[in-house]
What does this fold into?
Amino acid sequence: MQQISQSDQMPQIVLGINRGGCIPGIYLSHRLNVPHVTLNVALRDHNIKPDLSALEKAYAWQKKILVVDDINDTGSTFNYILENFGKPDRLKFGVLLHNIHSECQQLDYKGYDIDKVKDPRWIVFPWEQW
It folds into this structure.
């Protein structure tokens, strides 16, 4: 949160990547007092085609956009966005956990670095536990 508030680009909308990015995305939208919209880019467990229409709409309305996910593990989600949308100045990426071996290193904000080579355990966030 501090990284975002001290940056030169305060977001006008937060897009939480479905599903893991929704909880941190909603939290940030409340803290920053900006809208939250779900961005449907679920590549790992789903057979649903990713949908960047929420990102396209926010960009068309000249919004400063923050795309949030819980973890940047392999980098495939952020790389999909980069390959299909690009990374204009008004678009920022943020994650809670960043795997230092991820194929995507183009993050603007991150909570903690992790090393999945040294510790490959699957991370279960509190909102994923039953």
About this structure: The domain at 2-128 is CATH 3.40.50.2020 (Rossmann fold). The radius of gyration is 14 Å.
